[in-house]
């Protein structure tokens, strides 16, 4: 069981349940707006645009932020509780390195980007450094 992967899956399920819309052209935008009972010509002032073609109604904006802030706090609490880097932090790096094909590329950059860390931050924190080293070693062993 990978606790980080479980948390990530659960967080994604929560995001999927939020009242978000996505549109990549005018037709999709119109469909999204009509689905919300809004007029695509007159009610654009009732929306906030999100990255990646996403939209949220202003009335639901606080719910989105509360969800994201709670999820980030849960992640940071789990990272903070791992005093050695060999528990949750290791599982976090193992999952992200695997997801970003570290076993093929031997490059940690994409995994670190996904987690919001720089290499300097990871190397500067003994727990993070231990976790990524342990995860990289585990992945490399699997390639033998």
Cα(first) to Cα(last) distance is 23 Å
Q: Give the low-pLDDT segments.
A: none
- Binned, the helix content reads 55-70%
Which of globular, elongated, flat, extended, rod-shaped describes the shape? Answer: elongated
Largest sheet: 3 strands, antiparallel
Overall mean pLDDT: 96
State Rg: 19 Å
Strand order of the largest sheet: 1-3-2
Tell me the number of helical segments per DSSP (H or I, 4 or more residues long): 8
Structural class: mainly alpha
Could you please describe the fold and organization of this structure?
This protein is mainly alpha-helical and 144 residues long. It has 2 domains: 81 residues, no CATH class; 62 residues, no CATH class. The protein is built from 8 helices and 3 strands. It has a 3-stranded antiparallel β-sheet with strand order 1-3-2. Strand 2 and strand 3 form a beta hairpin. Helix 1 runs antiparallel to helix 3 and helix 4 crosses helix 6. The longest helix has 21 residues. It is elongated. The two termini are 23 Å apart.
Give the tags.
single chain; 144 residues; mainly alpha; 2 domains; 3-stranded antiparallel sheet
At a glance:
With 144 residues, the protein is mostly helical. It contains eight helices and three strands, in the order H-E-H-E-E-H-H-H-H-H-H.
Question: How are the SSEs ordered, and which strands pair?
Answer:
Elements: H1 3-17, E1 20-22, H2 26-35, E2 47-50, E3 54-57, H3 61-81, H4 88-99, H5 102-105, H6 109-115, H7 119-124, H8 126-142
Antiparallel strand pairs: 1-3, 2-3
